[in-house]
């Protein structure tokens, strides 16, 4: 296979992975919004546990069909990942409950610089000036679109801090564990989904009761609300899988930056289906600025020197340096 055809195939797969993630992520947001706002199913943590239970079932089917190969993941790495992932889910739910929408959006935006910090410190990644500027443009555009009222209190700030760092670490670990243990997205999801499902289904009902003063066992289930829960779980399978595929092929920072396209799409769909009273000039301008920044980031980070690992310290053995170069050449990151 020629180099050009390999590059074309990589681009096609990359685009397909992003589109898969965008469609499933936007879809699940819209379904969950209808489920919670229209049918009063406000048990977000338990619902996430059901999402991972459905994902676990999917991984078992894929393993039976031969798409997931037997692989090992050290218990220590698995526990770290599940801990970060669960703190991320609970932290984001609590942050949304305790903070204003404006501060919640600021917290979500701050995941980009935190993810950059983790890559610089842990992976020795170096960004070009254009890549840094494009990230700032994305932050500015999304901030203009989404940040309105900003109010915060001590417990809300602590919840947001935990949510931001745990989410950034969870997304960093998706890419790190795939690279470290040479396992694919399906394999990693097969390891992580079952313990996440069990832990969230055990903790979820209590966490949801603490946040909403409502018990999931007293909820009035109807045929339509149950169908929405089933639909949410079905879409979540694609969302979880596409997240692992995208971060595995790219990095957590790229996933965060380009992932804000989902925020723009959710805003557009919200205006389309739920009314246009929030659509004004500064929101439209913010969308345009954010889209320009995302396009710029995709171009800048793909250029030579746009985003690359720095050489390891000179005290490494020559064999280790050669191995690092080989790893860098094999990594398909944006």
UniProtKB/TrEMBL annotation:
Coiled coil: none annotated. Signal peptide: none annotated. It is a multi-pass membrane protein. Residues 306-328 have a biased composition (Basic and acidic residues). GO terms for cellular component: membrane. Residues 302-334 are annotated as: Disordered. Residues 23-297 form the Sugar phosphate transporter domain. It is found in: Membrane. This is Glucose-6-phosphate/phosphate and phosphoenolpyruvate/phosphate antiporter.
